[in-house]
Amino acid sequence: MAGTEENLNEMLLMRREKLNELIEKGKNPFLIEKFDYTHHSSTIRDNFEELDGQKVAVAGRIMSRRGHGKVSFIDLQDSEGRIQIFAKQDVVGEEPYKELSLYDLGDIIGVKGEVFRTKAGEISVRAEEVLIMSKSLQILPEKFHGLKDQDLRYRQRYVDLIVNPEVKETFILRSKIIKAVREYLDERGFLEVETPILNTIAGGANARPFITHHNTLDIDMYLRIANELYLKRLIVGGFEKVYEMGRMFRNEGMSPKHNPEFTNIELYQAYVDYEEMMRLTENLVAYVAEKTLGSTKISYQGTEIDLTPPWRRLDMEDAIKEYVGVDFSTINTDEEATEIAKAKGLEVKPEMTRGHIISEMFEEFCEQHLIQPTFIIGHPVEISPLAKRNPEDPRKTNRFEAFINTWEIANAFSELNDPIDQKERFMEQVKQKEAGDAEAHPMDTDFINAIEVGLPPTGGLGIGIDRMIILLTDQPSIRDVLLFPTMKPIGEE
């Protein structure tokens, strides 16, 4: 091991020595400010017949090189792929050709020359000028492979993107997916808005927030866990269709589906209900899949999933009846529900009611079965403090969660616009917080004031953008669709 480190240190030292030699020759690469390239590698390959014999300028990173006396071959990688550079001493000149020996893998160069095809059939650029513009003082790995390098890929995404250029395709597709979401909503009259990320109250969801402190005001503040309450204030103010896509922050566990900061979209539309939000959800997801992948039928990690609307609708109590064999329509008291839960092996806390137990039983036993797109409706009022009650069964709310591949990817309500009911539910949440529930919703008196001014009947929807992207890009983890996922610093593990 010590020998390997010594060799590595020696190689790194050699790179610095080559840099010094270039500087002594008046060729300091870090003084170069610009290079006017004319073509990317893919353009040259795709239009070879047209460009054959034409002069071009290309720029990129040296990924491999091999030499035969007075001839060198360099593989140059730019943002769109690779192209071979053919450098011959009697074309570039004796002294510039010698300087190629000072170039290493990873260096960034610009090349001017003529497009041609070698005898071996390789489309190439015959170099006439080669300019080094950045000296790589680190050594690129040959190729990341296997799980042992997974952490390094996430920590040093810049290296991952260089060595595994196919990774870029995931992030290009991510950008197209986000663009398609905006396109769908913009075309239907929704207005994109911006609301505060730094909040004085962590509201709009049940989650543990990140806490910070504002020195001038001398108050604690919170990174937003959701943007719901601000967006609903805008509906009160007279906007009819609004949305915001951006980062949310939750100080909770990490998993293949969870990162402390994540991208979410919330949208609100006046004068519609959660049924309309269901139609919007299934049509939006289908539109995005069709637009970016060319089909509403996708394969995720070997499982075929059909996103074509309409999606299945299933009441939470019916799901429990179907997958667990327990019929909550016949269970009316907290005591009965508690006994059933204990019999099924669930841990029941003292503050849990029938509604909480229904939710726990669904999460524990039903979610795992929801592979194809499914809307779960009929959520208990205890776990839905911002949703309207169902008039036919006031213990339930007019809410849905959309599940695909067992994951919740969307959550929506017919928004609660009764300020008296809302205040009572907030007060119940405050009791839960005082009893030790760190994720319970705090009291928000200004929001109560807003809906006392008057919130029209409104449908609201939140979609986990990262989870949707995981599915559409067929990636195993949220870390594979975030350019820079949250990682514990090296040395603190």
UniProtKB/TrEMBL annotation:
PROSITE patterns the record matches: AA_TRNA_LIGASE_II (PS50862)
Recorded catalytic activity of this chain's protein: tRNA(Lys) + L-lysine + ATP = L-lysyl-tRNA(Lys) + AMP + diphosphate
Pfam families membership: tRNA-synt_2, tRNA_anti-codon
Residue sites binding Mg(2+) 1 per the record: 401, 408
Binding site for Mg(2+) 2: 408
Principal location: cytoplasm
Cofactor annotation comment: Binds 3 Mg(2+) ions per subunit.
Cofactor: Mg(2+)
Enzyme Commission number, as recorded: 6.1.1.6
Primary enzyme class: ligase
One Gene Ontology term of the molecular function aspect: lysine-tRNA ligase activity
Top-level taxon in the UniProt lineage: Bacteria
Keywords in alphabetical order: Aminoacyl-tRNA synthetase, ATP-binding, Cytoplasm, Ligase, Magnesium, Metal-binding, Nucleotide-binding, Protein biosynthesis
Localization terms from the record: Cytoplasm
Span of domain Aminoacyl-transfer RNA synthetases class-II family profile: 171-489
Subunit organization: Homodimer.
Family that this chain belongs to: Belongs to the class-II aminoacyl-tRNA synthetase family.
Protein name as annotated: Lysine--tRNA ligase
Protein species of origin: Tissierella simiarum
